[in-house]
Hints:
This protein is mainly α. It has helices spanning 3-31, 35-38, 41-72, and strands at residues 74-77, 80-83.
Amino acid sequence: MTEAQRNHASYIATRARTRIFEKYATGQAEHGGNLWDKFTPLRLVEEALNEAYDQVIYLETLHTMLQNSANRGVTVCGDKVTCAICGMPAHAGPCV
């Protein structure tokens, strides 16, 4: 790997580790208990599948939003992204 590729991989690994730890700590604060004691293996895989389905929904929505943004343009100000046609927050559907 090149140095740029190593740096990129390191950045991803560090960010993932930090976010996973934060997510785990938040889950413990909200729900407590040991994950391995709370679910049967079947229930755990069902929960994981539900999370995977959510991820696909988020990615498909984001993909549509990005396609629509490319087609009609967006205005970005800090964290706020608006539709250049209607001025509303960037959206997946048609302008209203």
